[in-house]
Structures are given as C-alpha cells and as structure tokens.
Amino acid sequence: MPSFSLPPIIDNPDGGWGPSSSNLPEQFKFKDIPYAPYSKSDKLGRFADWNDLSTDNRQNVAGLPAAANARGGAPGRRRDGAQAFGSGTASAFAYFHVEDESSFSLVDNKATPARRGGGFSRGRGGARGGASYGARGAPRGGRGGGNQRGGNFNQRGGRRGWRDWDKNTRTRESSVVISPQWSVLEEIEFHRLSKLRLEVDEPEDVDSYGRLFAYDKTYDRITTKTERPLQLVDRIKYNTTTSDDPVIQQLASKNTATVYTTDVILSVLMCATRSVNPWDIVIVREGNSLFFDKRDGGPFDTVTVNENAADPPQDPAPPNPNNPTEKVPEVPSINTATSLSLEATYINQNFGFQSVIESPPPPAVDLAHPNPFYGPDETEPLASCGYRYRVFDLGITEDEDIKLCVRTEVDAYMPGGNPREGQGLVTIRALNEFDPRSQGAGGAPDWRTKLDSQRGAVVATEMKNNSCKLAKWAVQSVLAGADAMKIGYISRANPRDNTRHVILSTASMRPSDFAGQLGVSLANGWGIVRSVTDICMKMPEGKYVLVKDPNKPVIRLYAVPADTFMAEDEEGEGSEDEEA
To answer: What's the mean per-residue pLDDT of the chain?
Structure first.
C-alpha cells in the first residue's frame, strides 16, 4: 500500500492563527517575486477573463472573431470603461509558453462559417439571441434582443436622435467681447437661481408719459380665411436705455429708489433661467444707486425666434481665413438666426402700429405728461405708446429700504377703458411663422391649416419653442399693469419671401393667466433681481457687466473699466451727426 504522510504542522507559540514569522520555512517566504499594486475595485476571483484579453495576446477564442469578445464588448476593455489600478504590472506574473507556441501548427485553414444564431436576422423567425426588424427598422422583440424600445440605435445599444450626425455643433459666440482686463467677481449657475424666491407687493405708480390709441377690435375676428396683409406703418417708437432716460435721471436725483431699470431689461433678468441665447446687462453703481443698462445694438433691441427649440435656427459658420478658395454664398439665407430675428422685430413693430385706431372715434388719450423722448425737431408721427414709471419694494423686512424703479410700456387701450387711471391697458406682440420645412422650425404645424381647427397644438408648439420670449412678454405685461395682452399670428405670404406677411389670427389673454400657463414664477424672478442687487451693492462704485454664458446655463458678473463701451457710443453719435 502507498504510504501517506501528514504535512508538517507549524505551531504558533504566540497563540495566534497561522505560523509565526520566526519559524516560517523558506519555501513559504515570498522571495524574488515582484510587487504588483492593486486596488479594492480589482476583480481577483476570476480564473480566466476572456473579455480582458490584451492586444498582443488576443486569440481567436472558440471560433469567435477577434474584433468581438464573448459579451459583445470591445476587446481589451473593462466593462466599466476604467483601467484597473496596477494593471500595467500584471505581465510580471504572466506565464509564456514559448515552446508550446513554437511547436503549434494550424491544420484546418478553412474559414469558420458564420453562426446563424448571432446578430440580427432580417426574417420573421429570428434566432433566440437576436431580434427581428419590421418595415420601419424597429425591433420586434427577440427574446434576448437587448434594448427594444424602438427608435434609432447605435452599435452599443445607445439611442440616437434623427440625423444627429448632421447637426451643426458649432458653439455660440458671446454677446459681448470679454476683454482680458475684465475680472470675474461672481459665477452663478441656473439651478441656483431657480431656487430663489421673493414675494413683492403691488407697486406704486410714480408718473405716466406718452399718448395711447385705442385697440382695433376687428383684429380679434381675423381667421385664416379672412387674413389681412401686414402693412408698413411709418411711426417712431423709442427704446432708450435706463441711464439716458431724463425721467429716471430726475427720479434718481430725488433718491426715489435704489435700483433703476426698464421692463425689457428686467424681464430678461427675471426669466434668465429660460434663456439659451447669450445676453449682457451693463450695471453702473453711483453712490447707493444701481442702473441696469443695455448696449445699443445689443440683444435687447431684437426679438429671438425659436430660441428654446431642440434644433434652433443658426447662423452660417464664418469663412475660414486659412482657406481662400472657400465659397461664401452671395445671398444669405432668409432662415438664419440673424435674419429671422430682424424679421420678427419688424413684424412686432408694424403689427403694433397697424392694430390701433388713429382716427377718432375713439380718440387718442394723452397721459399725464407728453413723450419724454420726442424732441421738437422730430417730424415723423409718434407711435401709440405709454410709459408708466412704477416703484416696487424689494425689502424683506420693514427696516430694509431697497426699492426698484422700472419704466414699463403699454401699446394701446381698450375702447371704454380709462388709461389715465391704469384701466384697460393693452400690450401688443406678434409671433411669426417662416417656413415649417426649414431647419430651425421646431416641428411647428402649418398655421394656415391648423390655426383655426387645432389652435391648441399651435400654441403648445410655440410655448415649447419660444418659452423664454413668451415668458418675457408676460412678465413685461404684468410689470406694466396691463389688463390684456394681444398676440398676433403672422406668417409669410410666400415661405421664400421674408418681405411680405399676412395676419392670420389674434389671440387675447390676461397677462397673469398667461404667465401661469407658461409656468412663470414672478416670486422666483424677484428673487433673482434681489440677489443680483445684493451682490452689486457689496461692490465698490464702478461699472460691471452681467453676462450670460453663450453655451452654458451660467451667468457671470465682471468688473470692467469705467470707459468700457464709451468708444462705441461716441462712434455711434459721430456717425449720426455725419448722416444729419
């Protein structure tokens, strides 16, 4: 019988588990073995990992092609995509069977036939591990077919949108050139702004200026079958910035408020979390007063189009200076972002001029004071416009004295109302349709076929594509204390001609109700205004610029030199003098 001997048992005199270091035999000591670092995330319980074959030792395992591993992942990669700590030293423990490899020779050199059970079959009866596809390319659901939610899928199972490869991924440019002399003081993300809240009471009316005409109610009865052409009306309407307003200068000399601004600038700040396009606000602190200004020719002088659409209109990329042979289109497209913005601005102005009654009855109503911007040398007639200067109390406690004076605008009054007492005031805006089939249309339906029968679908699409613009209009109407808001639906007479337009319909709503439908929180807007005010009041006297990042949901506050933008203003005044 074969003999059996027990292995030697090494007792630990210290009473612990296992042998002690003093009496450990030499064969149990780790001598001449290199050290390999490791981390706790390493998987140490595998005898063989066919999914983690190195590039040099990749073999044709079990007849599978070398480009794919047993689990469908990329060769030479971990499942989590991260390289294990110390994996580069694992070759120190590798066993290389050189002699076995040198004696190996391949006998059968025929190509391995493709397995019918793998991949995707095109027929009805796909294999159990695959998935069959219908006429539209959507998987019908093999038992092991992976992700089967429909839509377009890439090779790894991730979902892709329609023509993702064809989308223009060019980044937007900032609305103002950031100079190296500017220093960043604050950077606030939109998710932080969305958490701010401040309840503000009803404002105090300080004064009113301008002249208002009555709104023409016949525009409320326009349908797609009784459309009217949009006319070019020659009128003057001013969009003066805060610091150049003579009324605000008088109020500031009397210390009427702490912050002075206009409803256009204030609405952008209150709806900042909805904005996608870049913008900038110039903030000047003089003593204990803050002035929120806009730049001439900046983003506040035009109207955006489909800013919040999934695929908004874009401007063409600038020509490459390193490629002189690149062809530049002689005639720019009428559906670019800049062209559509100018077209929308033109439509808004002329629709507001056209939809009022200038010849009595009913007569025009003069407010407490005449238009403060209309000089004696002006010869063109004024547009229907009324300015209401109102003061809002932003104080949280009774001891705080932080007030905001804002210049608000109204466009007309309803017949029978009393605009001098703030009754029956109306704001007039316009949405425009350019070409439903062009890039940037945002999936908008054809207004001529859907506006009368399916107005809800049209309104829902506009709320999605123009969320920021509609929110700003609603906030401006609420700030002005308007009782009604008129929105016209205006389309091109020909989709290829951006000079002729027709009025298809006009909608009427209450500003507060419309803001509720859009999900606009005035308390959140006032919280944003109060936070920006507190940040600026902590800074010393000087000039600052609040800039919305063109590609990120972030706003930044810069400290700028006092002469910033002064050269642009002087150049503009000089060109105006030359033209005169």
So the answer is: 79
Percent helix, strand, coil in the chain (nearest 5)? 25, 20, 55
- Bond from prior residue into 299 cis (ω within 30 degrees of 0): no
> Does 424 reside within a domain?
yes
Helices and strands counted in the chain (H then E): 11, 19
The single-letter code of the amino acid at 243 is: S
CB 381 within 8 A of CB 236: yes
Question: Which of the four pLDDT bands, split at 50, 70 and 90, describes residue 142?
Answer: very low
Rounded to 5°, angle at Cα 114 from 113 and 119: 170
Tally of CB atoms within 10 A around 189: 13
Query: If pLDDT is split at 50, 70 and 90, which confidence band does 577 have?
Result: very low
Could you tell me the residue range of the domain that residue 297 belongs to?
Answer: 183-312+333-579
Task: Give 137's pLDDT tier (boundaries 50, 70, 90).
Answer: very low
Lowest mean per-residue pLDDT among 33-37, 98-102, 170-174, 472-476: 98-102
CA distance 347 to 420: 28
Question: Is pLDDT above 60 for 273?
Answer: yes
Which phi and psi (to 5°) does residue 468 adopt?
-70, -45
- Is residue 74 in some structural domain? no
Is the residue at 545 inside a domain?
A: yes
As to burial, measured by CB atoms within 10 angstroms (0-12 exposed, 13-18 middle, 19+ buried), residue 238 is: middle
Is residue 103 included in any domain, yes or no?
A: no
Residue 261, beta-bridge partner list: 406
Give the per-residue pLDDT at 400. Answer: 87
Least Cα distance to 304 among 548, 495, 139 occurs for 548
What is the share, in percent, of the chain residues with pLDDT greater than 90?
A: 58
Domain count, the chain: 1
The rounded Cα 160 to chain-centroid distance in angstroms is: 20
Degrees (nearest 5) of the Cα angle 556, 561, 566? 105
Q: Are 379 and 180 in contact (CB under 8 A)?
A: no
Give the residue among 461, 435, 103 at the shortest CA–CA distance from 308: 461
